[in-house]
Amino acid sequence: MGTAIEWTDTVWNPVTGCSKVSEGCRNCYAFALHDMRHKAFQEGKKLPQQYAKPFSKIQLFPDRLVQPMKWKKSKRVFVNSMADLFHNDVPDDFIWNVFDIMAKSPQHTFQVLTKRPDRMMEMLSGRYWRDLGTSARPYFARIIKGEQREGDMPFLPNVWLGTSVENQKAADERVQYLLETPAAVRFLSCEPLLGQVDLEFTVQFEHPDNEGYGVQAIKGIDWIIVGGESGPNARPMHSDWVESLRDQCEEYGVPFFFKQWGEWVPFNQMDTFPGHETRTVKIGKQRAGRLLDGQEWNQFPDRGERDAN
Ligand code: SF4
């Protein structure tokens, strides 16, 4: 299954359904799309059985688990574009099945994005701690500090873990959990970006056996995606917010991917209106495009990147 999402090649949806957790969910495209089809299903339209239930009902599709193992060509795979894998109603065992499939499909790079990084951290850290015992602790400390050594691999090398950050509140709440989760690549999806986000704050880590230490949030991040909102009720995105994240990425050497402006574009980003006016105008996603300061930003992380061959 192909996708129009610019930062991935395909989507894989062994789970569908979710519930809203924060401002970034207000105009959730998956919610709107599923419930529109659910309504049509109820009106008698011929649609797949999954639309018999509303989006608020979490549905598991065990038969879809093996799909990536059948794709021979290497792809970037966005895991659950129509759900949040770490929603409370997805059982632990099913999540481990998803991770087992990812481990058995090293030809692909899997991109797991969640607004529930607390559960992701609890599950992934918990398993490593349990399996590796106290010997995992020094590994863990080195991973957080970005000082991995050969042999330090208590995570899947082809799985990128990310959390959504739509504003500062989400960054303050979620980034710490992401940084505490062992991962080959940790990323942020700042879409829809709804405000200024400063990632230079310090995250404090504490462990029972040591005194704890702090690290700047952005230093634990390997990739940042930024995008504006699309759809009928889309909220505008200020160019200052985007440029600030781009500048933070440049300063700390973090790859930056600008996905789209969304429905609204600032005047100062339009060819037809060059100037300093930062007010936004609603012109539609296609026309608004994805140029920031006159260029595309399509950077990807080096760490964990697929071999182009
Ligand atoms: S967490 Fe994601 S899938 Fe779930 S409601 Fe929010 S935006 Fe939609």
From TrEMBL:
Stored Pfam families: DUF5131 (PF07505)
Domain of life: Bacteria
InterPro entries in UniProt: DUF5131
Protein name in the entry: Phage Gp37/Gp68 family protein
Species assigned in the record: Brevibacillus porteri
